[in-house]
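Fold in tokens:
===
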Amino acid sequence: MLGAAGASMVVTIRPALAQTATSVLTCEIPVPQPRQSGGWLLRDGTVVPPYTRGAVRPPYQPLKGQEIRDALMNGRLYPGTTREQTQAYTNYMLRLQNGQSGFTCFVSIRAK
């Protein structure tokens, strides 16, 4: 009897895990936060006023989980960016804290 219950549990858990993995790769992180829109980023991830010396323009769209994972795990650049932009965007995300847009997405990606 326990074997039958265990088998049905596996059937219900596996799709949930697959769905979680998929959602992590499709989640999005706005860089910077909506309340900081218009800000540019320094290499260390700090948001500064536009055209600040040494700052890079933020991405036009939120970064997607798969892009972030590829940058973190494989050293790839975010699509259409330079190495400096990729570094600034990644450092920005490393500064995210609980309650900010994209925090849960980023933590989930790093846990994979």
Observations:
- Residues 2-26 form the longest helix (25 residues).
- The mean pLDDT is 85.
